[in-house]
Amino acid sequence: MPFEFDIEKRAGEQLGVEISSAVFDRVQTCDNHCSFCFIYQLPKNLRKSLYLKDDDYRLSFLFGNFTTLTRFTEADLERVIDQKLSPLHVSIHVSDPWKRADMLRNERGAVSLRWLKVLLENGISVRGQIVVCPDHNNGEDLERTLIDVLDQYPLLEAVAIVPLGLSQFNPEAELRIHTAEEAADVVTLCEKYQLVAKQLLGKKMFWPSDEFYLLGDMPFPDASSYGGYPMYEDGVGIVSSFIEEFHGRKINDDETLAQQTSGFFASVDGATPGGYRSVRDGSIQNPAGDTGLRVVHSQPVELTRRAPSVTSSSGNVGILTGEYAASVISALVSDYGDRISVLPVVNNYFGGNTAVSGLMVGEDIRSVMLSHVECGVFLLPDVCLSEGRFLDGMTLEDLPSSVVVLPTDGHALRNFLEKVMQ
């Protein structure tokens, strides 16, 4: 039975009521069994919320979680259209129906993209994702998928093409990471069909993630070519935007990108729907799982005694970062001299190709800090912390020396270095 309350408040005064959960019933869990799902590759004894998978269109709208639509219904369609729940985020992976069913390990995967066409025809904005797995949906399969997307789903806003993420706990023997040549081939193929899409539809449509450019040693596109960074949250354009920020240039005319997202390789781009993303406005918690695995927005960290007083006499500065970001940051800070060291943190905890900053854990960070005693100050990106804790449960207090936690964007890094070098 519903309750009614009368609340008196002044005009403009906050109501003081917060919604504790984004949904008022149970989250629609995922019944796919994708071999490349990162949740199956987690070590034991992490936070319970990290192991929850969702395939819920509501969380796709609210948090950007990707849905395969295998549990989507007529009632869901009616609600999405009536309430204009847009944009949604849909995992495509491969256009061949039976190969898609095989990748999802769910026979409904062969037919669930029918909902995608109906959503688009009814004015719902949809962003897509293709997780590329070597020997499964790359090469000719990927090209066929790009062609089919242009033909069958031209109204898609954009499609991110991302590599699978593998940890040392991966139980699937047939999965492997991309070779440099394969990564370069993905970039070349996507850029080819970017041009086709631009000619046919007036938009580039297909966006290979930054990881493919790094893995394939391919030159990054100019920042201006990203057109507002439509797939930024999926690791597309983060390098270019970080460089632009570092040099003090705007990455978006209205600056909304800088406000909404600042993670630098903070995600596992092979993850299937599982609530890996952080909340969009910070007010509602994602019930589908912990935000620790897929942090896209910077999470403010309250520091006490672990934040040192930094001056020009503080000694060498060590920038702790993931392996992917290390080469990019090294090039940016090279003009600052020997006082600034970029310290790549090899992810021994997860292993595999988990080289993103958001998955760095306290144990690995501690090891790097102990081997660089010459550094008087260590910088740490905020994306590897969730409520002050690393994924392995360690806190800042467990590290061997003081750290400065910075927002993970180019502006913050440049401003800090300028202060230190004065």
Automatic annotation (TrEMBL):
<dbReference type="InterPro" id="IPR007549">
    <property type="entry name" value="DUF512"/>
</dbReference>
<dbReference type="Pfam" id="PF04459">
    <property type="entry name" value="DUF512"/>
</dbReference>
<dbReference type="Pfam" id="PF19238">
    <property type="entry name" value="Radical_SAM_2"/>
</dbReference>
<feature type="domain" description="DUF512">
    <location>
        <begin position="162"/>
        <end position="248"/>
    </location>
</feature>
<protein>
    <submittedName>
        <fullName>Unannotated protein</fullName>
    </submittedName>
</protein>
<feature type="domain" description="Putative radical SAM N-terminal">
    <location>
        <begin position="10"/>
        <end position="158"/>
    </location>
</feature>
<dbReference type="InterPro" id="IPR058240">
    <property type="entry name" value="rSAM_sf"/>
</dbReference>
<dbReference type="InterPro" id="IPR045375">
    <property type="entry name" value="Put_radical_SAM-like_N"/>
</dbReference>
<feature type="domain" description="DUF512">
    <location>
        <begin position="307"/>
        <end position="402"/>
    </location>
</feature>
